[in-house]
UniProtKB/TrEMBL annotation:
GO terms for molecular function: pyrophosphatase activity. It comes from the Bacteria. This is Ppx/GppA family phosphatase. It comes from Komagataeibacter rhaeticus.
Length: 498
C-alpha cells in the first residue's frame, strides 16, 4: 500500500515491538490501510523464556542482549518517525519474577515509549484480530504459539467467542517435558482436556499463528517443492497436516537441515510445535489447517492505527489501492464488472468477488514495459504481500491478469497457476482474462468508449453488440480478441451493430 500523507507533510508510520519468550521483532507499518503494509520487519531470537519453568526468571544470559536489541529497535522506529510506537511484552515477561526489573531497565533505555505487558486475554484478542484482518469471516480455532504460551481463540462468523492461554509455548513445553517428546505429548493432552469449549470447534479449521507454526509450513513447502513460497493462508487438508506433523516429530535435525531455505533457528522448536498441532487436531477433529502470518502485531495495527478502515473488505481494498497507484481510471473497474457479468451467470459468490477484484486490478500493468507486462503483472499479483487471498485465489487472479496482457499459456512462469488451479478454474481465469483483454481493445481503457457496447451469450453464440455510433472502435484486434474469448468459452462469435 502507498504511504498515507499526514497533515504536517510527513508520512504516517507506526511501529510495534513484539517482545516474546523466544524472539523480539520490530515491525514498522506504512500508512493507514486495510491491509497492513510493513516497510521494516526484523527479528532477533533471544530465548528470554528459556529456563523460566524451572527458575521462574527470565534467561539471565539473554537479558543484556535484549537491552541492546531494544535500544537499536528504538533508534530505528524513532528515526522513521513512527507514531504510535509501542512495545508489547508477552508470556515470559508477564510470568517471570524478574519481569518488573527487566521492564524498568527497558523504560530507562526507551524513554517515552509505552511498554505494555499483555495479559493472556489481551494477547489472544490481538491474535484473533490479526487473523480476522485477512479472513474477516473466519470460523474455527485460532492457535497462536509463542515461546512461553499458546493462545486459543474460538471464532464464529468473524467474532471471538472463547479464549484461553495455556503454558504450551515451544520453549516452556520443552522445559516442562525435560526435552522428552512423549512427555510433551502427554502434557499437551492434559492441558487441552481442561478446555471444555474446544468441543464447540469440532470439525472446523485451525488457523495457525506464530513463528514456530510458520516454521512447520516452511518445512512442508520446501519438502514438497510447493509452487508458492508464501506461508500466509497456505492451507493443508487434515490428512496432509497430520502426516506433516508426524514427519517433523520423527525427523532428525540433520535431515531437516538438508531442505532448502529451512528456518534453522527454529528447528529446535519444530518438534514441539508439531506435537501441539497434532494433539490439537486430534482434540478438535479439525477439517484442515490454515497458516496465518497476521497475528498479534497486525492485530495491534488494526486496533490502534487502522480501526477506521477495519470494516472494509481486504480484497476490495487491495484492488482499490493498486488501481489508485498503478491504474489509469478509478471508475472503469466497476463498469468492467458489469460488462463481463453476462459471461459468468452461473458463478457463485466467491467467484463473483474474485471477478470484481480482477476488474479492479486489470490495469495495474499499464506503466510496465510492454514486452514484460504479462509476466510482471503475473508475478506482482501472485506474490502480493500480506493480503487476504488464498493461494488458489492468487493463482486465479495472477493468471487472469497475465492473459489480459496477452500471456502465452505455454510460458514457464505460469506454472504455479497450473499446479494450484483445477482445469475448470484455470479455464475460468483464461476466459475472464480474454474478456478483459477484449474490453480494453474496445475501450482503450476509457469508460466512455466501453459504454454503448455489451456482451451477450445466447444459443451457443457470443455476441459483441455496438450501439449506433460506437462501431467506429471495431477493428481487426477487436475481432481477433472476440474470437479468442469465444474459443475460451467454447462459443461461436458474432459482432452485432444496432
Amino acid at each position: 500500500m502507498g504511504p498515507d500523507v499526514t497533515g504536517n507533510g510527513g508520512f504516517h508510520r507506526s511501529a510495534v515491538i513484539d517482545l516474546g519468550s523466544n524472539s523480539v521483532r520490530l515491525v514498522v507499518f506504512d500508512g493507514i490501510s486495510r491491509n497492513p503494509a510493513p516497510i521494516f520487519n526484523e527479528k532477533v531470537v533471544l530465548r528470554l523464556g528459556r529456563g523460566l519453568n524451572a527458575t521462574g526468571r527470565l534467561n539471565e544470559e539473554a537479558v543484556p542482549l535484549a537491552m541492546e536489541v531494544m535500544a537499536r529497535f528504538n533508534a530505528i522506529a524513532r528515526g522513521m518517525e513512527a507514531s504510535p510506537f509501542e512495545v508489547l511484552a508477552t508470556a515470559a515477561v508477564r510470568d517471570a519474577s524478574n519481569g518488573p526489573e527487566f521492564v524498568a531497565g527497558l523504560r530507562a533505555r526507551l524513554p517515552g515509549v509505552p511498554i505494555r505487558i499483555l495479559s493472556g486475554e489481551e494477547e489472544a484478542d490481538y491474535s484473533a484480530t490479526g487473523v480476522l484482518c485477512g479472513i474477516p469471516d473466519a470460523n474455527g480455532l485460532v492457535a497462536d504459539i509463542g515461546g512461553g504460551s499458546l493462545e486459543l481463540i474460538r471464532l464464529e462468523n468473524g467474532r471471538k467467542r472463547n479464549a484461553c492461554t495455556l503454558p504450551l509455548g515451544v520453549i516452556r513445553l520443552n522445559d516442562r517435558a525435560d526435552g522428552d517428546l512423549a512427555r510433551a505429548r502427554a502434557l499437551v493432552d492434559e492441558d487441552l482436556s481442561r478446555v471444555d469449549w474446544l468441543d464447540d470447534v469440532q470439525g472446523q479449521d485451525i488457523y495457525l499463528v506464530g513463528g514456530a507454526f510458520r516454521a512447520l509450513a516452511r518445512l512442508q513447502i520446501a519438502r514438497t517443492a510447493y509452487p508458492l513460497n508464501i506461508v500466509h493462508l497456505y492451507s493443508l487438508p487434515p490428512e496432509t497436516a497430520r502426516e506433516m506433523a508426524d514427519w517433523i516429530i520423527g525427523a532428525g535435525r540433520r535431515s531437516l537441515e538438508r531442505l532448502p531455505g529451512v528456518p534453522r533457528k527454529r528447528l529446535e522448536d519444530t518438534p514441539y510445535a508439531a506435537t501441539v498441532l497434532r494433539r490439537l487436531m486430534r482434540r478438535t477433529q479439525s477439517r484442515g489447517v490454515v497458516f496465518c502470518v497476521d497475528g498479534l502485531r497486525e492485530g495491534w495495527y488494526m486496533r490502534n492505527v487502522a480501526a477506521s478502515v477495519a470494516a472494509n473488505d481486504p480484497q476490495d481494498a487491495v484492488a482499490h489501492e493498486m488501481c489508485r497507484m498503478l491504474g489509469r481510471s478509478m471508475t472503469l473497474p466497476g463498469r468492467l464488472a458489469d460488462w463481463t457479468a453476462p459471461l459468468f451467470v452461473q458463478e457463485d459468490e466467491d467467484a463473483r468477488r474474485l471477478r470484481h477484484v480482477a476488474c479492479g486490478l486489470s490495469d495495474v500493468g499499464a506503466h510496465d514495459h510492454p514486452e514484460y507486462r504479462a509476466e510482471q503483472t503475473y508475478l506482482r499479483i501472485l506474490r502480493l504481500q500480506g493480503v487476504g487471498f488464498t493461494h488458489p485465489a492468487r493463482a486465479f487472479l495472477s493468471l487472469t491478469l497475465a492473459v489480459r496482457y496477452g500471456a502465452d499459456l505455454s510460458m514457464d512462469y505460469l506454472q504455479p497457476s497450473r499446479l494450484l488451479l483445477d482445469p475448470m478454474r484455470f479455464g475460468h481465469a483464461v476466459a475472464l482474462g480474454q474478456a478483459l483483454r477484449l474490453a480494453y481493445s474496445v475501450s482503450g481503457g476509457t469508460e466512455a468508449l466501453l459504454d454503448g457496447t455489451r456482451l451477450e451469450c445466447e444459443g451457443g453464440v457470443l455476441s459483441l453488440h455496438f450501439a449506433p455510433g460506437r462501431d467506429v472502435v471495431q477493428g481487426e484486434s477487436v475481432r481477433r480478441r472476440l474470437e479468442r474469448l469465444g474459443a475460451a468459452l467454447g462459443l461461436s462469435v458474432k459482432i452485432r451493430d444496432h
